[in-house]
Design brief:
There is one protein chain. By secondary structure, the chain is of the alpha+beta class. It has one domain: Ybab, Chain: A (2-Layer Sandwich). 50% of the residues lie in helices and 14% in strands. It has three helices and three strands. A three-stranded antiparallel sheet has the order 1-2-3, covered by helices on one side. Helix 1 runs antiparallel to helix 2.
């Protein structure tokens, strides 16, 4: 019996990835991330708590810039006033930190997601970002 030639789909061999190109992409990503980190120092989020009675402004580096408390919120006649104020401040500060961390993560994700070519190259080597 004569052998027939294989007539299946022809597959292209993957061209080896250029290590210089990969290194350039890694360096660009490092540069972009350093710039984003620097920019986060000057980006702020504002969080309000207790119906707007407390407002906290925090940077992308989780540094509190300001805490404002509405004077109408302060009731020195209430015996539990200080305890309530402390509780609300804790909640507000934690919310501000969470929002700041989300801002930072969003900035970093936008940089790393733009490196699809690098992800493809690393994936072909069995690695991932």
């Amino acid at each position: 019996m004569a052998k027939r030639p294989f007539r299946g789909k022809k597959t292209k061999k993957k061209v080896p990835n250029n290590p210089n190109q990969m290194m350039a992409q890694v360096q660009q990503m490092q540069s972009d991330m350093a710039k984003a980190q620097e920019d986060l120092e000057n980006e702020f989020v504002t969080v309000s708590a207790a119906g707007g009675a407390i407002t906290i402004e925090i940077s992308g580096h989780q540094r509190v810039k300001s805490i404002e408390i509405d004077k109408d919120f302060i009731d020195t006649d209430d015996e539990d006033y200080l305890e309530d104020l402390q509780d609300v401040l804790i909640v507000a500060v934690n919310q501000a930190i969470e929002r700041s961390q989300a801002l930072s993560a969003e900035r970093m994700e936008s940089i790393s997601s733009g490196m699809g070519g690098l992800n493809d190259m690393l994936g072909s080597m069995g690695l991932s970002m």
